[in-house]
Amino acid sequence: MTARAAVFLDRDGTLVHDVHYLARPEQLVLIAGVPEALARLAAVGLPLIVVTNQSGIGRGMFTEDDFTRITARLDAMLLDHGVTLTATYHCPDSPDVPDEESCRKPGDRMHQRAAREHELDLKGSFYIGDLWRDVAPAVTHEAMGTLVPTAETPFRDLAKAKDDAVVATTLGAAVDRVLRMPAQQP
Questions:
Q1: Secondary structure letter of residue 11 according to DSSP
Q2: What is the pLDDT of residue 183?
Q3: pLDDT tens across 62-102, in order?
Q4: Which of 52, 56, 43, 64 is nearest to 8 (CA)?
Q5: CB 48 within 8 A of CB 172
């Protein structure tokens, strides 16, 4: 089977409001327009892959079981809108784990794993998030990265994205850019 493009999405600050160490499912609130934007991507057959750093696990602020419950709740919330995520990958490492040992973004270990498990083309894929570390794997793979900044996105991340990626005002605007790209093989 031929590898296909996917859309790699950050979770906190991109799909749901970032509450800093989301530890309980009831804290999940979808950002306005997210279900509609994801439905547009799914309609053209692009796999939707969530990749998220979850250092709260490594810091002892919540558990893997908490993360699993939150992921199930997010999946259910999106399914209520007719959207099914292809997969969710997370890195539980705290920032003090050395880069060469960690799966944290901006590294691409989670992306590589998703590519193996779902036969994805990392170069032909799209990388969307609210921080530079979410978009950086796009540069690594010579792909399209789109920063969707929030009020908490550092200015240096925005400046870096303007130089090495694309900046969009909303996830919907980022999806518009993805859908304008030449047809990808789902």
A1: S
A2: 58
A3: 999 999 999 999 999 999 999 999 999 999 999 999 999 99
A4: 52
A5: no
Peptide bond into 95 cis (omega under 30): no
Count Cβ atoms below 10 Å from residue 121 Cβ, excluding itself.
16
State the Cα angle at 150 between 145 and 155, rounded to 5°: 75
Per-residue DSSP letters for 97-113? S-GGG---TTS-HHHHH
pTM score of the predicted model: 0.95
Tokens of 41: 């991507």
pLDDT at site 182: 74
**DSSP letter at 32?**
T
Question: For 125-152, how does the pLDDT look when each residue is reduced to its tens digit (9 = 90+)?
Answer: 999 999 999 999 999 999 999 999 999 9
What gap in Å lies between CA 21 and CA 14, rounded to an integer? 14
Which domains does the chain show, CATH number per domain? 7-180 (3.40.50.1000)
Q: CB of 6 within 8 A of CB of 48? A: yes
Helix axes 34-43, 171-180, angle to 10 degrees: 20
